[in-house]
Amino acid sequence: MKIEQKIPVNIHYLLVNEACPADLFIFFRGQYAPLRKAQEALEPKIIEKILLTKSPFFYVNPSDWPQWKKWIDARYKKNTSSSSDTASKKNTEEDSLFGNKRAEFLSYARKTLHPRDSSSSRTEQQMDHALNAIEKVIRTPLLDWYFNQFHEPPDLFQHNARVTFGVATFCLINSIKTDYALEELIHSCIIHELEGDPKETSKKVASQTTLQIMEKKKYSVPKKVLDLIKIQDELYSGKGSPKNLKGEDVPYAIRIFSLFNLFDHYRVNTSGTRRSRFDRVKKSMESRKDDFDPVLWTLFWSYWEEQVEGIS
């Protein structure tokens, strides 16, 4: 049976939560599968499904191409005209592709966790709320420099996504309010580490490298977000840097962040099955238990062992 050919379109041109101008398909296992009908929203989960095909394209009917072309052109021009970076015309096309890297970030984040108990609607709901909170932050023009111009190593990009989703979900599931707004904490998690290899940075002072890059490139970052990044390497034990803050002097937001950040750094350095990796990571972190808030420490492991299950 002959398969009707469709037109491939780069996923760069999709914008999260906008309505499809016409039917949208993916190519999976040798055939085209309908993914969205005309006027249905392009939710983050839809972008994730396209990325799971390991192809940079979605597909449209030849008869629908004029509608898609008009839709893309309208948004291409809109994003280009609103771009704050006018330093070079060669960056115009890259800056205008608003959806691509943001969609990838959401996809990586969502694949980080799933509810340990599939019947727990509350956990699933809070995870969706966390994803929505992250999406709200990443759509701000204040992060255009990160998603449109900056290029960190892929492994580090995924690390930032995992930490961000873990922190946001943990705060929402446990109804935790820190000394910073959740949006500020999410923003700082997204850009907390901009250079290096996650396998080699668990003992480095990542904040200093991040601050140097921001200063050199003159990236615009909200003051409270910058304040968090400056002290992200502080530890409850007082062995952190740069101020050697100790105990309650370490902001609550940073005490949460340090658990997830170091957990993920240890995780990428550990091999084996999902369970064996988890056990090794926990053992490694137990050897430095004094570095973490004792109350959060208990909540953190309860979160992993009772509420959510991490990636392999």
Describe the structure.
By secondary structure, the protein is mostly helical. The protein has 2 domains: 7-72, no CATH class; 120-310, Hypothetical protein af1432, CATH 1.10.3210. It is 51% helix and 8% strand. The chain contains 13 helices and 6 strands. A hairpin with a 2-residue loop joins strand 2 and strand 3. The longest helix has 20 residues, at 154-173. The two termini are 39 Å apart. Mean pLDDT is 83; it is low at 78-99.
The gist of it:
By secondary structure, the protein is mostly helical. Helices cover 51% and strands 8% of the residues. The protein starts with 6 loop residues before the first strand and ends with a strand.
Task: Break the fold down into its secondary structure elements and pairings.
Layout: E1 7-10, E2 24-28, E3 31-36, H1 44-52, E4 57-60, H2 65-82, H3 92-96, H4 100-110, E5 113-115, H5 121-138, H6 144-149, H7 154-173, H8 182-190, H9 206-217, H10 223-230, H11 252-268, H12 274-286, H13 294-307, E6 308-310
Antiparallel strand pairs: 1-4, 2-3, 5-6
Helix pairs in contact: 1-4, 4-5, 4-7, 5-7, 5-8, 7-8, 7-11, 8-10, 11-12
